[in-house]
């Protein structure tokens, strides 16, 4: 088993994920895995970084596919005995003018952004080694969507005692409410992406709390973040940041020094903790 440190980035064949891998290849003292769902797109991205003189490694990972997640888990366990850095970056967003029915958008968006990310965490967090760093890429849209929720929902999502099971039930309820056409009546905002990212931010707060309760001595730091508005296929060419600039906050959180005990369980944007 290798004693080399290892970092894993999800959804890294393009956009912010690729830029995070680029930065980690330069700054992380160990193996860096560019993971993505399509091996062809992954190998092309690896080749691009190799042309820049970098040496990322590749592993397939479709966060919608539990078998794929478990194959990566077993690989990391066997080869490295765990992992040191996990960046949950993979995500999707329907375009604003997409005519797909809202209930379908809700189901598809929540499936990847919330349930897929949660499945990766469920399988990989137990493998994270002492002083490990976990970064869940959320969005400022999670904050604005939170403000668009009913007072009752806001209270639940801000609660310091909400459980993962309760959060999962709420995310599933959102999808069901959209199917029944009652999501606004039930206090939800009109954004599937926003609700999925509320899920990612709240999940991060819960996971950080559980780390405090169960593994305090391991000094693992876990945070959610917003990369900013970044020029990628998701956000389009008018966004203000380049992908490398968008990678800065996630990479800062991924490389928090072993002497750091904060931030932890926070929502971070521009390397600054934001109120939730
Ligand atoms: P992007 O260019 O569209 O890249 C998204 C990445 O996620 C792609 O590599 C995509 O793979 C991957 N992905 C989607 N579904 C996946 C799955 N089931 N399994 C594995 N990978 C999957 O978007 P981006 O702008 O770089 O976004 C990266 C993250 O930042 C997302 O979580 C996004 O919500 C967040 N974010 C972006 C912005 C922004 O302004 N761009 C702002 C706030 C937050 P394929 O190529 O195979 O589709």
Commentary on this structure:
The protein contains ten helices and eight strands. The chain is α/β, with parallel strands linked by helices and 276 residues long. It has one domain: NAD(P)-binding Rossmann-like Domain (Rossmann fold). Strand 4, helix 4 and strand 5 form a beta-alpha-beta unit. The model has no long low-confidence stretch (mean pLDDT 98). Bound molecules: NADP nicotinamide-adenine-dinucleotide phosphate. NADP nicotinamide-adenine-dinucleotide phosphate binds next to helix 1 and helix 4.
In short:
This protein is an alpha/beta fold.
Q: Can you identify the CATH class?
A: Alpha Beta
Mean pLDDT: 98
CATH architecture: 3-Layer(aba) Sandwich
Tell me what portion of residues adopts beta-strand conformation: 15-25%
Fourth CATH level, the homologous superfamily: NAD(P)-binding Rossmann-like Domain
Q: Describe the oligomeric state of these chains in a short phrase.
A: single chain
In total, the number of strands is: 8
* Widest β-sheet, arrangement of strands: 3-2-1-4-5-6-7-8
Q: Determine the CATH topology.
A: Rossmann fold
Number of folding domains?
1
From N to C, what is the helix and strand string?
Answer: EHEHEHEHEHHHHEHHEE
Please state the CA-atom Rg, rounded to the nearest Å: 18 Å
Features of the shown structure:
276 residues; alpha/beta; Rossmann fold; 8-stranded mixed beta sheet; binds NADP nicotinamide-adenine-dinucleotide phosphate; phosphoprotein; EC 1.1.1.184; NADP; NAD(P)-bd_dom_sf
């Amino acid at each position: 088993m290798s004693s080399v440190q290892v970092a894993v980035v999800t959804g890294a064949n393009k956009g912010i994920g690729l830029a995070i891998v680029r930065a980690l290849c330069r700054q992380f003292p160990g193996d860096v895995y560019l993971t993505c769902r399509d091996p062809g797109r992954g190998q092309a991205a690896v080749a691009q970084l190799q042309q820049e003189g970098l040496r990322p490694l590749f592993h397939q990972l479709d966060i919608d596919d539990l078998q794929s997640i478990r194959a990566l888990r077993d690989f990391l366990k066997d080869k490295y005995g765990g992992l040191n850095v996990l960046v949950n970056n993979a995500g999707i967003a329907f375009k604003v003018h997409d005519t797909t029915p809202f209930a379908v958008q809700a189901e598809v968006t929540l499936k990847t952004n919330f349930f897929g990310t949660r499945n990766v965490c469920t399988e990989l967090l137990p493998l994270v080694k002492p002083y490990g760093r976990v970064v869940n890429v959320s969005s400022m849209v999670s904050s604005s969507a939170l403000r668009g929720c009913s007072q009752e929902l806001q209270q639940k999502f801000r609660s310091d005692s909400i459980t993962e099971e309760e959060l999962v039930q709420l995310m599933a309820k959102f999808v069901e409410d959209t199917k029944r056409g009652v999501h606004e009546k039930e206090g939800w905002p009109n954004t599937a992406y926003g609700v999925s990212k509320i899920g990612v931010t709240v999940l991060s707060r819960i996971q950080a709390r559980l780390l405090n309760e169960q593994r305090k001595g391991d000094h693992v730091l876990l945070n959610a973040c917003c990369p900013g508005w970044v020029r990628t296929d998701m956000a389009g060419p008018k966004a203000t940041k380049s992908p490398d600039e968008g990678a800065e906050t996630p990479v800062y959180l991924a490389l928090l020094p072993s002497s750091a005990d904060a931030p932890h369980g926070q929502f971070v944007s521009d390397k600054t903790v934001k109120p939730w």
